[in-house]
## 1
Amino acid sequence: MDTQDRRHSGQPREDIASVENEKPVIDTFGILVFLVVVVEIVLVFGLNLYQRSRVESLTTQLQEASSALRLPENATLNTQVSEVLSGGDKLKNVLSTRVKWSKFYTLLNGITPKNVKLTGLSIADSGTFRAEGNTSSLSDLARLLVAWRDGTSAISSPFSSISLNSNGFSDSGGKRVVTFSISGNVNTGVLR
């Protein structure tokens, strides 16, 4: 039906006029997006100015505090702070070179054959050690020496050198046992 037919048919012309008079939706949406972007730009600019003034005030405070620390009455405090800072570095060095003796005993237990009994173990600050003990045979003593020197396939030896000082036979509870004394050096690098 065209316009001529509507006039003659008696249909109202308001339907056609109402569609033609409405604003397009895109214009309203475009204006809204533009306003949001403008507000965001203003906010970012304002925050930037605020942060810049905050940095300037903190810089001024830092310079004032720095000049106050340089005063002669604060020389003792500065010396103490320097000593504390250097002490902290020394403490870090000591802690990084600290030997974990629990690891030593775990490794020692893991590589020592089961039928070997240690009766004494002493370790000097320098890392040298001396161990005394007994076992049931000379072949068990040989296994101990090899295990302490080389470690096992799964566990590395905590010792860097091993030497048999002495061995002999003794009676222990009616049994003949092999006694021994071994000395060497603990590999403290493995225990850190």
## 2
Amino acid sequence: MKICKKGISASLAVIVLLTACAGRMKSTETDTPEKMAEQVMRSVKELDLETFNAYTDNYEGSRRGLFGLLGDREYKVFQDILQPHIFESRRYKEKRRFAEKVVEELEWDLGEVREEDGGEKARIKMTVTNRDMAKALELYIMWIMEDIMEDTEMGALSLIKDIPAAVNGCNEDLIRFIDETRDTWTEDVTVTAYKEDGVWKLHLTDEFINALMGNMDPDEYEDEWDRSIDGSAEETESEYARQNAW
């Protein structure tokens, strides 16, 4: 019995020591704005969202659901794959695969770092490069347009009107166009770092998130999509009406 107790105690001691070493290692890796920013960028590339959330202000809170119960958690980015899940559903796997595809070619170069407010804040310049996701979206839309021009049946209208839904739903065809895209998007951004309880963290702005995602900003193209969709829909409806008037 004494041997068992000693064995258990020894095992616990090893676990504690390993945990303490890991904690010191992680702390050492992020004890400056530069190291923290590098850690954040690596975590995006690897989709290590636990580390990403630990060193950014990605988490925004939780929505209240029925009867005041806590509902979905709100995040600035990677919202869908950060929701609690008991098992990996098909939808989760699709979202995860899409996120992996978006950051697959992500690269960055840290530049000047200027600390402010007595070392409590810092401004970090960096250059972020990724696949040009806007180009992939453009090619995807053109592909749908071509299908619609060849098919004047009214059923084709539902396809083009579902473009935003296809983007949000991680459509397989859109992933194919991302794979085929050779264009890159490079953006110079200045991000703000700040200390919270002695830990350096990175502030996520819309500009910075857009750079990480390779200029995939649905809001930027929403009006253009709507105009294209409405125009193609009207053209297809006119052609359909003309053919069926005979």
## 3
Amino acid sequence: MLMGHFGLVLGLGFLLAVVRSPEAAAQQIRSATLADIPRLVELAGRPGPRSLATDEDTSYLTTLLEQPDTLAVVSETEGRVTGGVVATRHSIPGAEPQESIYTIEWLRVTEDPAGAIQQALLVEVVRQAAARGATVAIAAQPG
């Protein structure tokens, strides 16, 4: 899935470098559930690299969230989902069988000029991946 993308591998050092902003502190971060999918698909309709929400988004997110090794978290403010991130686990070619990496498959947030929501979501995914003995790769489309 990283073909045509560039990636940045993050580890625990990233967690230590993050400064929590007031916006991030207002967010409640929790595990995503299937019930969150309609709101996450709604967020996919916001302007961005992929700005059209479709039935395929619903199917895609459902498939990802049903996988046992998937990490999926959402942010909430006052009970409303304001963002979500989904990462899937992959083995590292040539590495020990227990070594793995999580890649960010899906990340969308509401209006977030300071990046606080996105940052809070990514910090939580990195924390959960580290707890499972893995690293996180964040990929972004160029341009």
## 4
Amino acid sequence: MAEPTETQATETKDTGPQPQFDPAAIQSAVQSSIQQYFADNPIQVPRAEEARPVPQVNPIADLINPYIEPKLRQAALDSNAAVDTALFYATHPECIKHKDELEKVFSGLKSQGTPFDHEAVWAWYRGRNFDTFYKEAVEQDQARLKQAQLDSTVDGGSRPRNIEIKDAHEASDEDLEKGLKDISF
């Protein structure tokens, strides 16, 4: 091969006249092309409610509701019963001695799905056993009255409890002397 001569080297280096480069003209041409494209093809942004249509009826609900709804109702009934139990016995301490009978009735109602609260069961139970509650109330009143009589004294001091106090008009002289033994005049 022959070595390139100087004339050949200049021929390969010279590519001819350079075109004039105008950046502003190119920018305006590109910008007008983009504007024309978007004017011909507007962007359609879907609205939020159009983006994902929500079905009016859940097609699976009809299949699973018969299995889920009874369990959800029972869970709600159980949780409400637990809250009601805690509040009822905290606010009605007189019911604690009747708790077994009350819970038996309440559990029976709950197993049937009847949403009664403990207050309603207590009212029913008291009405059903009214004579028993009346006798208990009378006995408690009599016991309080007797204790009040034992606690009352002429001198203002308290007497020992569970000591029988005798009527002074019916007591013998010996009983009166024993009763006045520790009292100074």
